[in-house]
Amino acid sequence: MDYITIALAKGRLAELTMDLLEKAGLDVSELRQKSRKLIFTDEKNKFKFILVKASDVPTYVEHGAADIGVVGRDTLLEAGKDLYEVIDLGFGACRMAVCGPKELAGKLDSIHNMRVASKYTNIARNYYHTVKKQSVELIKLHGSVELAPLVGLSEVIVDIVESGKTLQENGLVVLEEVCDLSARFVVNRVSMKMESERIVSLVKTIQSLLHSEE
Q: What is the pTM of this model?
């Protein structure tokens, strides 16, 4: 029997996923040990786990280096990979939003040549071009996106909002909702055909666990 490989996003998301996989009957004890290893195994159930950077999870799954991945919807939308998105796991819930100074509330549609700063330029582009049908200038940033409107780099930002505390501390507010976000269980398209029975079995177990927790 071949191993089924699951790619997990390092950090808090991996820990929450481990708890869920453990409840689903997989042995994640090796994964929980603090070590520098990159590949962990559950010999009994023939599963392998790899810990990778969140932004790399969709790439590993799309190319078949992992059969399954667990990662935030923001990462999936930004990556735009061809995967099966099978389960909304519900944890890590937050939202993607357009944020800026409160003076801009209700005025966004009247701003010409609006500049939008974001780490998530693909999500922002899709939102403005497809949903808003609006032409904007996108500025790619890698950190401290909230700074952009404060120093005149952009009018607004598109970013993840959890509590909204960081926005508040910088005098910014949510102006428009882009989409809801949470962790997703994704599967490689070929793996879904080749290992259909084992993957579907795991999916059903996880779905019933999530259903019982609601």
A: 0.90
